[in-house]
Write a structure and sequence with these properties.
271 residues, 22% helix, 25% strand, alpha/beta
Length: 271
């Protein structure tokens, strides 16, 4: 299978490049499945039902999230009826929505997608290592599903790397999201799991993490929270990672970063 994971979609311009380019990307690379982190898609903070539905209509199969999932309060309601939207699985018991799900490709392949959130420099959450162990108790590559994809939404690279090595050989791909800066360490780990510390953001990189520079700069320079955070909207980049799986093992045979448009150096895989 060929799978594309799109990094954190920030604001209107991030949504726009997904709407405009994803259909041709799916066709060109014969993609079986597309995942996107959408927790910043509503003006940089959270996601609405309308936006979630529009991303799915554009070709996104599953939307993962993170610490901004509840910034748009309506998400606490519609997440229970939108099965393709998931939130971190290590939220406390009783939190609306679900942290993982098994989804089918058009050809009938089954893919488990799980969302986790880190605890280093983040809000207090349940232990993501224990939570993913519980999720994987009855799910195994090839035996029950054809692929397992994990989005680790975390601040610390060390925590993401630890999770990647902890899951190596048990899942297909682990990506890091949240920090909005694509790393160059995409690779296949020792036991066959694909890994990338951060797949970047989908938005305007002539910015500070997708926002107009003036707001964050004001906060850093004055040490006050008064600088308004407005999503930048000049030139969009679609950033993520693409993999090809080995059908016999469910592990990764090819992996490469995916960068299209905007101010970054483009990289589109030669798959």
């Amino acid at each position: 299978m060929r799978i594309l994971f799109i990094g954190d979609i920030v604001g209107e311009i991030g949504r726009k490049i997904v709407h405009e380019r994803l259909p041709e990307i799916r066709s060109k690379y014969k993609l079986d499945f597309v995942i996107a982190n959408g927790e910043n898609s509503a003006a940089g903070f959270g996601i609405t039902e309308r936006i979630a539905n529009s991303l799915i209509d554009s070709g996104v199969d599953v939307i993962t999230t993170g610490n901004h999932i509840w910034d748009q309060r309506e998400a606490m309601v519609f997440i229970n009826r939108q099965e393709r939207l998931i939130r971190p699985a290590n939220f406390p018991a009783g939190t609306p929505g679900k942290g993982a799900g098994v989804f089918e490709t058009e050809s009938g392949k089954k893919i488990l997608v799980a969302n986790l959130m880190g605890r280093v420099f983040m809000n207090a959450m349940d232990d993501p290592f224990a939570v993913i162990d519980k999720l994987l108790l009855d799910v195994r590559l090839i035996e029950t599903v054809d692929a397992i994809i994990v989005d680790m939404h975390a601040e610390a690279t060390s925590e993401k790397q630890a999770m990647g090595h902890y899951l190596d050989g048990r899942i297909t791909l682990m990506v890091g999201t949240h920090t909005h800066v694509p790393t160059s360490d995409f690779r296949v780990l020792t036991k066959g799991t694909g890994y990338m510390s951060d797949i970047g953001m989908t938005g305007d990189y002539d910015s500070i993490l997708g926002f107009e520079k003036s707001g964050p700069l004001h906060r850093f320079l004055t040490h006050t929270p008064s600088g308004k955070l407005i999503p930048a909207r000049k030139s969009a980049t679609l950033s993520g990672v693409m993999i090809e799986t080995d059908d016999s093992s469910g592990l990764v045979s090819k992996i490469d970063s995916f960068i299209l448009g905007g101010v970054l150096k483009e990289n589109t895989p030669n798959f």
